[in-house]
Amino acid sequence: MSILHVAMFRWKPEATQEQIDAFMVELATMPEKTGCLLSYRFGQDLGLRDDNFDFGVVGELVSADQIDGYLDHPAHLQLVEDHVRHIVAERRAVQIAL
Asked: CATH number, domain at 30?
């Protein structure tokens, strides 16, 4: 049984598209850097519904035992420090067993 880690972000009003683009560039490196993701998808909300979050990330891991290894991996922690903390207003996450 694999696990989906889903994270959603709402950006601060002053977040720029350049900052979000830099975040996406670094996100694309997470599967290789962490070595524990079976699949990985992310992107900006399409704006089809009011009150949606601005951005979503979905990572699939082999088991629940790997979630801490991914979230606490030095590359993931660096991503958060360099590209998320200064532009995020709100974050929500959930892990789902498949």
From this structure: 3.30.70.100
